[in-house]
Amino acid sequence: MRPRHLPLALLFVFLAGCGGTKLTYKLTFDTTDPVERTTLGRASANVVERRLQRLGEEAKELKIEEKGEEAFVSVKVPNEAIGEELTRQLTTPFKLRIMLATEDDKADLLTLEYGGFKETGITEKQIKWMTASDEEGGTGRITITFTDEGRSLMKKIFQEHQGEFLGLFVRDILMSKMYIDTNELKDDIIITGVPRELAGVFADDVNSGLHVTFSLQ
Questions:
Q1: SS3 content of the chain, % helix, strand, coil (to 5)
Q2: What are the beta bridge partners of residue 75?
Q3: Over pLDDT 90: what percentage of the chain?
């Protein structure tokens, strides 16, 4: 049997497709603090890498560059479809809510496993920062720092709903369920017992979502 050869034009298209596509995203920060911008730049690069991993791809030639007051993340993706999905995920507005557990018929959002939750008025706009740190025993913790408005709202919730549960939702997915065991809020909320590697991933995702806007160049 004779070997079959692709036409030259088709062979060129195939080889070009194998090379992948380089995407560059401009990062717009909501802070001018140079230390915070550097931290957020690294977090944003980590977010790009992990989003590609969830899409079943490796983040090739991933690079972050600062040009004056501007920052850019570039990465090579295998094809147009992966690039479009990555861009869709990175440019979709970030959504976070802290909600109060309630009866299903009074709920604003229902979960299959934990039932209903209602709005408290606390969204991504009242969250200032999330910090991941290590605990003894190989686990991690996440510290949620609120704005002044967020802290006031949380204090009221703790005073009025001791013995109830709060849910932390990111993009309408329940990430943590917290029991209100006191009527007095400290300055921050601390979530303990988180797998160490997941604590850092979660903090990067939230901080990047809170403070960085991606735009495809």
A1: 35, 40, 25
A2: 23
A3: 81
Distances (CA, A) of 87 to 17, 24, 82, 183: 19, 10, 9, 43
C-alpha–C-alpha distance, residues 13 and 26, integer Å = 29
Q: What is the pLDDT of residues 111-142, one digit of tens each?
A: 999 999 999 999 999 999 999 999 888 899 99
Cα separation of 41 and 67, whole Å? 12
- Integer Cα distance of 51 and 42 in angstroms: 14
Inter-residue contact 56 to 78 (CB < 8 Å): no
Place of tokens 């996440």: 142
Domains of the chain plus CATH, in order, are: 16-92 (3.30.70), 96-210 (3.30.1360.200)
Q: How far is CA 25 from CA 35, 55, 125, 150, in A?
A: 20, 18, 23, 31
Tokens of 82: 């992966």
Q: What is the reported pTM?
A: 0.85
